[in-house]
Amino acid sequence: xxxxxxxxxxxxxxxxxxxxxxxxxxxxxxxxxxxxxxxxxxxxxxxxxxxxxxxxxxxxxxxxxxxxxxxxxxxxxxxxxxxxxxxxxxxxxxxxxxxxxxxxxxxxxxxxxxxxxxxxxxxxxxxxxxxxxxxxxxxxxxxxxxxxxxxxxxxxxxxxxxxxxxxxxxxxxxxxxxxxxxxxxxxxxxxxxxxxxxxxxxxxxxxxxxxxxxxxxxxxxxxxxxxxxxxxxxxxxxxxxxxxxxxxxxxxxxxxxxxxxxxxxxxxxxxxxxxxxxxxxxxxxxxxxxxxxxxxxxxxxxxxxxxxxxxxxxxxxxxxxxxxxxxxxxxxxxxxxxxxxxxxxxxxxxx
Length: 351
Prior knowledge:
alpha/beta
């Protein structure tokens, strides 16, 4: 069975329901179109959920943690040990995504899908390690196709579990030193280009010298690995990340279950491109929460054909931008659930 066949069971969005939501919005006590994009979101959520009064609460936040072998090349401002340390910070409730997740009443989970050290003794970490970090894609392939498929399936099953627990919207986040380097390499590969100068950013805050090194490492790796832009599994295998694959699998599960996906920043958008490449229908279930300050995110958004809800200059990752944008989705649902119609309020409508 091919990957495309395995993840082929994504329903089409309900265009008729979208029309019903649109028509209902016209009866609300406001001038036509006066709530702008909020009205468009309400229609989109109706199409995604096939529900005239969609619900997005509670959201489910899945944070996938994994290390990247390419980090040994000095492309990050932090050592790889920080990944495991940040997992522990998440468990203690001190990570940025914890703060913003609590604010929106989210169900929160952290999954070790490929951290380079053992954190198995820590309760609260979902242990699904495929391997101890990826290979250094400058000198070898990041992982095997089988490992990519394992990571996709882990993400898929973890998302289905949180949906069964009641999540009505899915936010995906990531922890992993070196993952902006991996994401930049993947973006260049998926876009079929060899030069990455316009795609790379400072990630965790690297110097000019390290930024140049990052570019050189990626370009050399692409020349050596030769990932196939028409094969997302090949791209993941050669220059990808385990957490990126996990998030892509989760997005496919959300789409299959008619649950909206609130995409985070640069790295999450790369996962979204992978999910859409596996099954184009998955793209219809995606809403992009924010625009990252990472330069490559603009191209990634263009390839995904989505416009972000907010732009606050953020680049933390973890799902934080999506979590901050989530109340906008909630506002769209409350608009159609709680606003009065002209008829119910006894207000004269426009002639």
